[in-house]
Amino acid sequence: MSVDTRPPIEIAIAETADWTLDLSEFRPGDGWAVAYYFRGPAEVDVEGVADGDEWDFSIGSATFDVAGGYQWTAVATDGTERCRIATGRIRVLANAEDQTGLGDVTTHAERMLAALEAALEGTASKAHRSYTIDGRSLERMTLEELRTNRDLYARRVQLERELAAKGVSSAPKRVAVRLR
Q1: C-alpha–C-alpha distance, residues 32 and 76, integer Å
Q2: Do the bridges between strand 54-59 and strand 68-77 make them parallel or antiparallel, or are there none, so unpaired?
Q3: For domain 10-95, which architecture applies?
Q4: Residue 43, exposed/middle/buried by CB under 10 A (0-12, 13-18, 19+)?
Q5: Are 92 and 12 in contact (CB under 8 A)?
Q6: Domain coordinates in residue numbering, the chain
Q7: CA–CA separation, 67 vs 64, rounded Å?
Q8: Interval 65-75: pLDDT, tens
Q9: What does pTM read for this prediction?
Q10: How many CB atoms lie under 10 A from the CB of residue 100?
Q11: pLDDT at residue 180 tops 80
């Protein structure tokens, strides 16, 4: 069994999560305290519990009661110094058992794909790409642009479905770096 070393990326209201940090430079015996501060739709603070030279953290079932995106910061303090250890994000989901009438649960990519396909179907009857009436103008995408965007969103939808089948909530984010 592996021990988590960070808060979860995603959790539902009423779920629990535990993780442990081994911070050799911020040991409990040296007078340090470590806490996580979650900020978003609500404010949640989770203080570390010393366990030898490690810190144990727990999100209890009553910790988060408001769904939404939160940013967190882990901070170590010793009374005179304050050190930011790490930052991240967590998404708190509504508890499905308590929800009724969730409404539209399609993803952005699914909605965009449907809109692009509808635009492609309606484009054949629209002869003009752009026009102006009473100072207001409208410019439509070309068929090529619509098809390119449709193909892009079709790939995104396919990736989302593949990840969901594997139990992964989202694709890893790409970070581009250019060295000079």
Answers
A1: 6
A2: unpaired
A3: Sandwich (2.60)
A4: exposed
A5: yes
A6: 10-95, 108-165
A7: 8
A8: 888 889 999 99
A9: 0.56
A10: 4
A11: no
